[in-house]
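Title: Comparing notes on inverse folding

I've been comparing how different people in this forum approach sequence design from structure. To keep things fair, I'm posting one structure and asking everyone to reply with a full sequence. Here's the target:
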């Protein structure tokens, strides 16, 4: 168990931090099969560097291309929105121009 009571879950021999994240992965796999999304990736690393100084990293739970709009989607499965995540969400917008989709 994690400190936030999330249960580590394995699907397709992949370790997920919570049942919610694992279930979302299964949903996204169906969307890939249906041709609605493509290029599904897990735990994609984004670096936050300001004025040449590395601040921190953010690991997106999922990234994929929405085929309807040909747009990159960065998604995070959230149970609790703790302060470090809120800061990284703001940094994603400020440093990379990306809004995180929370599921």
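Reply #1:
Here's my take.
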């Amino acid at each position: 168990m994690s400190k936030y009571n999330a249960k580590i879950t394995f699907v397709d021999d992949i370790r997920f931090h919570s049942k919610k994240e694992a279930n979302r992965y299964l949903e996204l796999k169906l969307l890939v099969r249906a041709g609605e999304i493509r290029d599904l990736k897990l735990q994609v690393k984004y670096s936050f560097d300001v004025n040449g100084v590395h601040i921190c990293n953010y690991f997106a739970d999922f990234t994929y291309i929405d085929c309807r709009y040909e747009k990159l989607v960065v998604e995070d499965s959230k149970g609790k929105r703790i302060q470090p995540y809120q800061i990284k969400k703001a940094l994603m917008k400020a440093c990379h121009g990306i809004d995180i989709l929370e599921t």
